[in-house]
Design a protein that fits this description.
Number of strands: 0
Shape: rod-shaped
Order of helices and strands: HHHHHHH
Number of helices: 7
Largest sheet: none
Helix content: over 70%
Strand content: under 5%
Length: about 220
């Protein structure tokens, strides 16, 4: 029995289950592609941004560092560091940086990091939900198909595996599609979650290094 014959033999409820699974698959694939592109751009731009902004800060050019961050606006590190630099922009020409400004910068970095993490996680909840529920949606379709198969056997008053083989095959298609949708979604969710954790560590480290840099400048100004 071909796939088209299976589709034609399915009841409207089984077809509805399959269509739902197809839509879930399309959504999960779109999220996978979008997240992969986003993370790739973040990684690529961060590799260019990090040494360039370090050079600007080394020379005390905060304005240029901010402009550089706005240029690399896909970088997760740039999004975070810019927020901290804006708080200290007024002291770009001064060595004596007030403690209040450094504390304000620290809070700005924490807020920006939290926002960046939420942005990086966008769509991952959907992947987790699809990975957890798609097999059960497929199982529902299988259950309905088996019920229809045995109901048909009773109606035709025939017995034997041949009488229900077509209906069972139709029913198991829903389970197969459910697993086909769920497994890649779970894999992608785990992979992207690990990437987000890596990005989070990088943002925390960069924020800490920026605060250390300004604390050092402050101590040098007082010295």
């Amino acid at each position: 029995m071909s796939m088209m014959e299976l589709w034609d033999s399915m009841g409207w409820l089984a077809k509805g289950v399959v269509l739902i699974l197809v839509l879930l698959s399309a959504y999960s694939i779109s999220v996978m592609i979008e997240r992969w592109v986003t993370y790739r751009q973040a990684r690529k731009q961060s590799r260019l941004f990090t040494p360039a902004v370090a050079e600007c800060l080394k020379d005390g050019k905060i304005d240029e560092a901010i402009a550089l961050g706005e240029q690399y606006n896909k970088s997760h590190l740039a999004k975070v560091l810019i927020s901290g630099l804006h708080e200290l922009e007024a002291h770009s020409k001064s060595q004596d940086i007030p403690g209040e400004s450094i504390e304000a910068s620290k809070r700005a970095l924490e807020r920006a990091t939290a926002i960046a993490i939420e942005d990086l996680k966008r769509g991952l909840g959907g992947l987790a939900t699809i990975g957890a529920t798609a097999p059960f949606v497929g199982l529902f379709g299988t259950t309905v198909g088996i019920i229809n198969a045995f109901t048909g056997m009773k109606t035709e008053e025939t017995a034997g595996i041949a009488a229900v083989a077509g209906g069972i095959a139709e029913a198991l298609v829903a389970t197969a599609i459910g697993l086909f949708v769920a497994v890649p979604a779970v894999w992608a969710f785990n992979y992207f979650t690990n990437r987000v954790e890596t990005f989070t560590v990088e943002m925390d480290n960069s924020s800490s290094e920026l605060i250390d840099y300004f604390l050092k400048r402050r101590s040098e100004g007082r010295g």
